[in-house]
Automatic annotation (TrEMBL):
Membrane topology annotation: Peripheral membrane protein
Main localization category: endoplasmic reticulum
Keywords: Endoplasmic reticulum, Heme, Iron, Membrane, Metal-binding, Microsome, Monooxygenase, Oxidoreductase, Signal
Purpose: May be involved in the metabolism of insect hormones and in the breakdown of synthetic insecticides.
Family: Belongs to the cytochrome P450 family.
Keyword Lipoprotein belongs to the record: no
Name this protein carries in UniProt: Cytochrome P450
One GO MF term: heme binding
Example of a GO cellular component annotation carried by this entry: endoplasmic reticulum membrane
Family matches, as InterPro entries: Cyt_P450, Cyt_P450_CS, Cyt_P450_E_grp-I, Cyt_P450_sf, Cytochrome_P450_fam2
Organism: Photinus pyralis
Localization, UniProt: Endoplasmic reticulum membrane; Microsome membrane
Amino acid sequence: RKPKNFPPGPAWFPLIGCAWQLHRLRRRMGHLTKASQELAAKYGPLVGVRIGRERAVFVYGLQAIEEMYTRDELNGRPIGLLSTSRTGGTRKGIIFTDSEFFQEQKKFLQRELKQSGFRKEILMENIQREVRAIIDNVKRKIKDNCAVTSDRLFGEQLLQSVWVLMAGNESHLDDLGASELHRVMVDLSHSTSLSCTAFSNFPFLKYICPDYCGYNPYVRVNRTVIEFSSKMIQGLRKTGSPNASLIRAYLETMDSVGKSNFTMDQLMGICLDIFTGGFETTNNTLCFAMYYVVVHPDFQTKAQDELDRVVGRERLPTLEDKPQLPYVEAVVLESLRMFTGRSFLIPRRAMKDTTFNGYFIPKDTVLFGNSRGTFMDPNSGWPNTSVFNPERFMKDGSLNVPDGFIPFGIGKRRCLGEVFAKANLFLIIAGLLHTFNFRPVPGDPPHFEVMEGLTAGVKPFKMIVSLR
Ligand code: HEM
C-alpha cells in the first residue's frame, strides 16, 4: 500500500517547548511529555511537527515505540548542535553517534564492561562501598535532628561509583572532585532537555543570545566534564591502573591499533556519556523513590518488614538477597516507571527514507519517543497509572513484571548501563530502607512537582529521616 504523506500534527508545538525552556518556566509548567500525550490523543501514535525548517515526529504508545526501538533504519541519532557542540564540533561517544562507528564502539564497551565493571564481584564491591558512603552521608545529615533535603543525598556517591565502573575499583575521585563534578552534572541536567532545547531546534539563536538560549552553558558544562575526565585519565596513565578496567582497555586498544576510531577525543566522549547516562537517570529515579516512600509510609513499612525477615538487622542487603526481596524490587520498578514514564527517550534519526505506521518518513527526520505512552498513559493497559503502587509488580507474593515494561529500551540502542543501574537502584533503595525511616515534615508535607531537565526529576523536598 502506498504510504500516506508525512504524519499530521501542529507546527507550533516545538515553539512552545522552546519558549518554556527560554523563560525557565519548565519547573512550574509540568512536563512536556504530557502535552505530547494530548497531541497523540488527537493525531495518533505519530505526530508530525516542524522545528525551524525541519520536520520531526513525536512517537507515542508502546507499539510505536517498540517498532522505533527495533528498526535499524530508525536507529540513528540527530546531527545537530545538541550532539556536536558538547564534544568540540563533531559527534563523539555513544549516545549521540550512529552507523558503523557507533556499532564498533558500543560493542567494545559492552565486551570490556562485561569483563571488568559489570563482573559480579567487582560490581558488588563498587556498589556496596557506595551504599555505605550514602548511609554515612545520611547519618551525618541527621545528626542535627533537622529535616533533610532530598537532593545531594546520593549524587556524589553515584558519580564516584560511575567513575569506578570505568576506571576500576582501585581508582577514586577525591571528595572535592566528586563534589565539583556533582555541581557540574546538575548544571548540565538543568541546562537542556532532550526534546525542546532552544539552541538545538533554532541554531541561529547561538549567534543572537548564546547565554539566554542555553548554548553557552551547555558547551561550558560539557567541556568541564571532559576536562575533568581528561585530568583523571592522565593521572591513571601516569600511575598505571593495576586492575582491568574499561579505560585501561580503551587506552591499550588506542595505543595498539594506532590511527583508527579509538582516539582520546572519542574516549572523552565515552566518559561524558557514561557520567551523564549513569548519574542523571539513577539520581532522578532515586529521588522519585524517596518522594513516594515518604508520602506512602505503608509501602515503606511493607518493604522494611520484608528486609527484616530476609536480611535481619545485622548486615546490609546484597544482590544475593534480591530473589527473596520481591517487594523491595517492586518498589524499585515502580519508581523506575514513575521516572521513565515522564521522560522523552534519546531522540532518533531516520537513516534512510522509510515508512513508519503507514506514513512516509524521509531520511534524517528526527523522532522523539515519549515513554509516557508505554506505561503512564491510562490507555496503555496499566491501571491507575498516576498512582504509585508497587503491588502492580506483585502477583501471589512473587515479583511479576508485565510484558512491555521496557524502561531500559530494547534493540541495538538498549541502555549500556542497565546491569549497573538495576544493581545500583536495588542496593541503594534496599540499603536506605533497611537503615532509616523516612517521614514527611509535620505541617510541611512534600509538594510533588516534576522538573524538566535532560530527564524528568522531582523538585527537591524536605523529609524527616531517623535511624530504625
Ligand atoms: C535509571 C537508570 C537508567 C535508565 C532508566 C536508562 C534508560 C536508558 C534508555 C531507555 C536508553 C535507550 C535510548 C534509546 O533506545 O534510544 C538508554 C541508553 C543509554 N544509557 Fe541508560 N539508563 C539508565 C542508566 C544508565 C547508566 C547507569 C548508564 C551508564 C553507566 C547508562 C548509559 C547509557 C548509554 C551510554 C546509552 C546510549 C546507548 C545507545 O545509544 O546505544 N544508562 N538508557
